[in-house]
Amino acid sequence: MTRTLLSALLALAIAAPCTASATTPDQDRAREIYSKLISYNTAEGNGQVPVMAGWLAQQFRDAGFPDADIHLLPVGETASLVVRYAGDGSGGKPILLMAHMDVVAADPKDWTRDPFKLVEEKGFFFGRGTADVKDGVATLTATFLRLKKEGFVPTRDLVIVFTGDEETEMATTRDLTTTHRKLIDAEYALNADGGGGTLEEDGTARSFSVQTAEKTYADFELTTHNPGGHSSRPTPGNAIYELADALKQVQAHAFPVMWNDTTVAELRAEGKVAPGPIGAAMAAFAKDQHDAKAIATLAADPGSVGRIKTTCVATMLRGGHGRNALPQSATANVNCRIFPGVAVDDVRKTLQDVVGKNVEVTTIGSPIATDASPLRNDVMEAVARAVHTLYPGIEVVPNQSSGATDGMYFRAAGIPTYGVGGMFMKDSDAFSHGLNERVPVKGFYDGLDYWYVLLKDVGGKH
């Protein structure tokens, strides 16, 4: 079957843009799943991830997935869920489909609506996790159930991987990529928790990004020490002052400008549509990575600086042991988002050089550094075909995230990972991790159509 014919047939399978009063049975089922998932408070410490995973596992069993293809894997108080949609083996290695089940905490007293109840209002779905990323869990689940009901047999195994602590320790991800590596072996992974479509404020589709790289998340502690003493007898040395001086040095330090194929392609594409000086700087940098004016403009913009260099910023402080005592120690947490390909310890050494030998710099935990995933034409083209059934002709571009997802562990394990979340939304509607988190109702339903087309494409015969 030709690509053109496949695209035409898949486009015919897409439902017309829907409203809340004109939904299909498949959309209704997806909303039911979404609503149930939002009702679980899967923030750390509540023990609800395994409960939610168990409910999901039962939906797959009821749909006809064999028990042998459903794996609920406990890790401490949380868990991961792996569900295999068996193919006929003619299409090569499996493809992973990722999302995470946990959310950040939400205090109902602070919210306008109950954060753990899916509420539809004024064209939006409200609730904790609606955007990050229970929409992905619901959509992937609903798409598997729909394909199973239709009797679809993929040419290769499609494997859902729902992790349980992406927002905190990512222990379930480490467990999957080590203890259960064979269970998730795949040619590549498609991550619902990354990428996605951007709408202009008037609702016009701007572009769709495919997350092919993530910066490494790393925390470092900077600590100063002093003998201390009575506060009535100040000394020239003071641990808090010394730490403050060190932090000002970190603030003033500029990490070197860096780039890769993903960042150049992304800035080239965004430079065509981004307004004002930022758009001009993006275009100029994509053309010449040594353009000093473009670098200065991008480095001064909070939304752009992380695209062209490693960033480190102080986020927490603690120090002293008594109101009437000179501090014996002071500690600050410095959070770094490290450019792909740069070793974590190289950043630690840089910070040590910046603050000097009298400040102790230590790495917190065991952060994972990974390179960018290769720009695969087959992945980019399949995503473009799915996106263009919703918004014909918009540009699909690679993206490097300044944040971090489970994808970094899969990349480190040798599985190229691509963030391809199907949600289209405006920047002004982005409330992930914040109060009154929401997504457009249309964006959720369009995302169902997008994933249906994408999975039939990557898992079907060409």
From TrEMBL:
This protein's record includes keyword Hydrolase: yes
Domain of life: Bacteria
Alphabetized Gene3D superfamilies for the sequence: 1.10.150.900, 3.30.70.360, Zn peptidases
Signal peptide per UniProt: 1-22
GO MF assignments: hydrolase activity; metal ion binding
Pfam families, alphabetized: M20_dimer, Peptidase_M20
InterPro entries listed in its UniProt record: ArgE/DapE_CS, Bact_exopeptidase_dim_dom, Peptidase_M20, Peptidase_M20_dimer, Peptidase_M20A
Residue ranges of domain Peptidase M20 dimerisation in the record: 213-358
UniProt entry keywords in alphabetical sequence: Cobalt, Hydrolase, Metal-binding, Signal, Zinc
The UniProt record lists the keyword Metal-binding: yes
Listed cofactors: Zn(2+)
Family: Belongs to the peptidase M20A family.
Protein name from the UniProt record: M20/M25/M40 family metallo-hydrolase
Species this chain originates from: Noviluteimonas gilva
